[in-house]
């Protein structure tokens, strides 16, 4: 679909590009930790974070002391946000029902949703202490029924991030490590002398953390292949350009590689938004970051009508999509490709990021075309079971199995079916010899 741009992205060769060979660096770190365990973790923590305490794991006394240092208002806010996340996660869990169905007389098939045993939750802390990620990863895992959750978060400028530790603790983390980057993710994935191996990794991170999760996927499960934050706003002539500009920049401040896009049916709204973004950047404290992402990756597209705006938005398939139109709930049926929808001017992406209760770990880089974000179900293994209690039906299934398997030249499979047809229907087969079915002597 052709696009009419009022502002088009003009990325440079270095926009958001890492200055190092990320895959190679990550591979070496993982290999070293796999080989040297804690010794390698200590080396890399010292190298990357200048952090090498006697123990990376916080004791219960450490946690109690750190939480006590956090302002009461912050603790109250953490509890409120986590209550919102927990309520929504509980509703998600309740929607996943175990069941058993009798598909024909005596044949029972069932499904169970079993939590993984151990989760590693990574909470970033480089540019910003993203303590909200503790709510999203740990609370959701605990609602899913995960017995053991390890939380890892890096030091920030040589200091323990107290509010993040409080968030991890109040969310229900069973162990908390002040450890960051690839060394944290790799240690949880492969296991060391002091950090137990997990079954599943969750949480956002920088390019190195994302690459580590990519390389470790398969050895452990992961939530998502996450990339830079994205925001897209669909607006008609009723939208407030000041609000549009404010919300675009709210996400542009995540990093210099965070695209922010407006698709509007109103040229006036589009041009005023561009003007206001430039104006608001003069007072935004994070303008050094947001100016780069908006300047090089920001786009404003003019659509002929709202339906075309939704169609263009679906082509972008962005992580966050805000709807500022006369009837915002139309987007629920008009759009398909997004990580999360935010409907109407009283809602914003920042609510989803920080406090409203839905999960902010969401698909980026077009991944919303095939997956959703982190939710209770990511921590559950949907497994099945089957039981046949009717002898005649078992025999008939055996006959069917024999025919189906031989059509695919799987003789061993066919014989498993033959045996049930023989036992329950009296069918005879050359390969079944009576003397071979005698019980062994005591």
From TrEMBL:
Pathway the protein acts in: Amino-acid biosynthesis; L-histidine biosynthesis; L-histidine from 5-phospho-alpha-D-ribose 1-diphosphate: step 9/9
EC number of this enzyme: 1.1.1.23
Chain spans, region Disordered: 1-20
UniProt xrefs under InterPro entries: Ald_DH/histidinol_DH (IPR016161), Histidinol_DH_CS (IPR001692), Histidinol_DH_monofunct (IPR022695), Hstdl_DH (IPR012131)
Record bears the keyword Amino-acid biosynthesis: yes
The reaction(s) this protein catalyses: L-histidinol + 2 NAD(+) + H2O = L-histidine + 2 NADH + 3 H(+)
Cofactor(s) this protein requires: Zn(2+)
UniProt keyword annotation of Transferase present: no
Key words, A-Z: Amino-acid biosynthesis, Histidine biosynthesis, Metal-binding, NAD, Oxidoreductase, Zinc
Low complexity composition bias: residue spans: 9-20
Family according to the record: Belongs to the histidinol dehydrogenase family.
Function: Catalyzes the sequential NAD-dependent oxidations of L-histidinol to L-histidinaldehyde and then to L-histidine.
This protein's name: Histidinol dehydrogenase
